[in-house]
Amino acid sequence: MAEGVVFDLGYRPHEGPRTGRRGARRALYRDGIRRVLGIRRRARRKLLPMVLIGGALLPALFFVAIGVVVGEFDAALVLFGHPQYFDLTGQMALIFVALAAGELLIPDRSFGTLQVYASRPLTTVDYLLGRAAALATVAFSFLWLPHLVLYLGRAWVSAEGFASYAVAEADVLLTTAIASLAYLLAYTPLAFAVASVSRRPAIAAGAFLGVVTVSVPTATALTESGYSSLSLLALPHHPGYVKDWVMGASTNEWLPEVAGYGPAASLVMMATLAAACWLVVLFRQRKAL
Fold first, then answer.
1. What average pLDDT is seen over the chain?
2. What are the angstrom distances between the C-alpha of 218 and each of 91, 185, 189, 221?
């Protein structure tokens, strides 16, 4: 007759406060932000996010320095103002979101952590909303913080005084925030959808960047062949078009605009794609549990 053996592995019951479903969602959100930024991880995990964030902020800090030292802040902004700044950070945000989406979804699925989350009072929707909120927070900050730095720098060197300038130009904060949300809506749902069907973060990032990049020459060729409605397939042109519309600028020849569509069509296209991507991610996550 076999004799059973009991091993004491040192497991202990949780003795801290039980915060329930709301606390679990907050913990998931905080963990998502740490994972995107590489906090409490090895240095190589922090390298790319920090390089991209530094690259996004550096031009803004440079212009502020010019304004303070030389007093040519206004001249610099004429050449490289808020709308043009989005054309730079929009490309960088594309890479940032591509890397972050895979890091948020794929390790949990690959290492079997999803089953641990499912044993807590969390639903699949809670999990996805927590991950999406973490990515949205960091990506929005990535896009909007340089404009806040420019705004504060310009107010600092303004001849009207800091407070007068800050009040008079406060609408810049609103328009840049709306433009940042447009980039967020265009990029993050598709990046999540690609990550939900990939096994490795690097492959997911490459596939996402490939789809977005190839969409522009494909849509251009189809539009020139007479299929003007397919200009809406130019995915990275939609947030830029909406950004120019919100900020009253014209920084590029956006393909939907060339084909005769208004900014509303770009908004509808982004919202439709986001809804479709959400359904794909939801289906994949439920299947993985």
1. 87
2. 19, 22, 21, 5
